[in-house]
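Need residues for this backbone.
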C-alpha cells in the first residue's frame, strides 16, 4: 500500500484550500503545524484501514490467514495458508475407491501434490476432507413454516 502518497495528497489538498484565501504567513504556518500534528494520526488511521481490509479479505478466503505487515514503514497484506484449518489425516486408511480420471487432471493432481510436499493420496484426502468439512459446516439461513 502506498500510504505516503495518500498522506501527501491530503496535505496538498489542505494547502490548496488554504491558498484560496489570503490568510498570510500566519495561516500557512498554522496549516503546516496542523499537518505535522495530524500526520501520525493519519498514518495510524491508514494502518487501521489496512487491518480492516485484512480482516475482510481473510473472512472471504477460507483456509488462509491475512495479516498486516510493515515493509519499509508501509502496511502490506500478507496472505498465508492457515495450517490450523488443514484436515488431519489419521493412519487408519482402510477404505478404498477406484477413480477414473482424465490424464490431464491426474497430471494436475500430481503437480499440485508435489508443490505442497504431499503424496497424491494425501493431497486428494486433504482436498476431499476440506471440501466435505465445508459442506457439512454450512448453516441453514432459511426459515421453515410448520
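Answer:
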Amino acid at each position: 500500500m502506498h500510504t505516503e502518497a495518500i498522506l501527501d495528497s491530503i496535505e496538498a489538498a489542505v494547502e490548496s484550500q488554504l491558498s484560496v484565501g489570503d490568510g498570510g504567513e500566519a495561516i500557512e504556518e498554522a496549516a503546516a503545524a496542523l499537518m505535522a500534528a495530524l500526520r501520525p494520526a493519519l498514518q495510524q488511521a491508514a494502518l487501521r484501514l489496512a487491518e480492516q481490509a485484512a480482516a475482510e479479505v481473510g473472512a472471504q478466503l477460507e483456509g488462509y490467514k491475512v495479516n498486516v505487515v510493515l515493509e519499509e514503514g508501509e502496511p502490506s497484506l500478507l496472505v498465508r495458508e492457515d495450517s490450523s484449518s488443514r484436515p488431519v489425516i489419521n493412519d487408519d486408511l482402510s477404505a478404498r475407491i477406484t477413480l477414473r480420471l482424465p490424464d490431464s487432471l491426474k497430471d494436475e493432481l500430481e503437480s499440485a501434490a508435489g508443490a505442497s510436499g504431499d503424496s497424491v493420496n494425501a493431497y486428494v484426502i486433504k482436498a476431499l476432507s476440506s471440501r466435505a468439512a465445508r459442506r457439512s459446516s454450512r448453516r441453514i439461513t432459511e426459515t421453515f413454516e410448520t
